[in-house]
Amino acid sequence: MKKISKITKQKKNQQRYNVFYEKHGQDEFAFGIHEDLLVRFALRKGLELSSEEVQNIEQQDAMYRYYTLTLNYLSYRMRAKSEIIEYLQKKEATEQDIAYVIERLQAEKLLGDVAFAEAYVRTKMNTSTNGPNKIRQELYQKKLTEQEVEQGLSHYTKEIEIDKLVKLIEKKVNASRKKSFKEHLNSLKQSLIQKGFNHDAIEIALQSIELSVDEDEEYEALKYQGEKAWRKFERKHEGFQLHQKVKASLFQKAFPAELIEQFINEKSMEEEV
Questions:
Q1: Could you give the CA distance from residue 218 to residue 182 in angstroms, rounded to a whole number?
Q2: Rounded alpha-carbon distances, angstroms, from residue 55 to 16, 31, 99, 198
Q3: More exposed terminus of the chain, fewer Cβ within 10 Å: N or C?
Q4: Do 185 and 223 meet the contact criterion of CB atoms below 8 Å apart?
Q5: Burial classification of residue 269, based on how many CB atoms lie within 10 Å of its CB (0-12 exposed, 13-18 middle, 19 or more buried)
């Protein structure tokens, strides 16, 4: 049996205490303990503890310590169950410690993957430009079940998706460009699909926007691409062959035929001067 000779509050953590044993008339450090457990086990000076009691106290304190660490981890934002487990594993918690923390958090309604999924989707909807499919992938990476994922994504309605798409498209489609309008639009569609938006929602959003081609801007983009093609092909070709190569390149980039002809005619006139 060990007799407690002294209990002192830790300086760096006011919620933890140091417990000392009496040994050869001196105080010898025994273990640290949280104040909640100090009260629960009624530890006090003069109390004698068996080895089994000390082992139990230290085990309970370890679990409690992991619990309080997790509460701090949760204070920044909600976490998925898989994130809590990974966090505790990095802290070298045992399976028993992890099970205790998870069970207690769930009992206190501080942990639930459905609630996490819903909060995660709402946050991503409001703070990112990602579509529902991208968010779905992110939730699966956090090891949520299909049912939990779909429950969370039920808040990302088709109406919200289309509204977000309209805003994104209006911002991007009118940005300065060096591509043909059609190629610019196709690139924009592909970018939105990569961001996780659905193809049908993209088409609906596009149909709700009045899209028009500014011919002056289109021709400036054509001249930029045309000059690049001209410099590339004039190293090996000239005359009719050069013109055909440049035309083919501009057709592939979806520029209108009449603007391509206008550019070729202007370049031909430059050659004659």
A1: 10
A2: 18, 10, 19, 57
A3: C
A4: no
A5: exposed
Please provide the size of the chain in residues: 273
* Closest alpha carbon to 142 in 161, 162, 114: 114
Q: How far apart, in Å, are the Cα atoms of 247 and each of 180, 184, 196, 261, 267?
A: 14, 19, 35, 8, 12
Instruction: Copy the structure tokens of residue 59.
Output: 């085990």
β-pairing, 16-23 vs 2-9, is antiparallel
* Measured torsion, CA atoms of residues 223, 257, 182, 270, in degrees rounded to the nearest 10: 0
Give the DSSP letter of residue 7. E
Going by C-beta distance under 8 Å and a sequence separation of 6 or more, which residues neighbour residue 83? Answer: 142
Encode the chain (273 residues) as per-residue pLDDT tens digits. Answer: 888 999 999 988 888 999 999 888 889 999 999 998 999 999 999 998 998 999 999 999 999 999 999 999 999 889 999 999 999 999 999 999 999 999 999 999 999 999 999 999 999 999 999 999 999 999 999 999 999 999 999 999 999 999 999 999 988 877 667 888 888 888 899 999 999 999 999 999 999 887 777 778 888 888 888 888 988 898 888 788 888 998 999 988 888 888 888 888 888 777 665
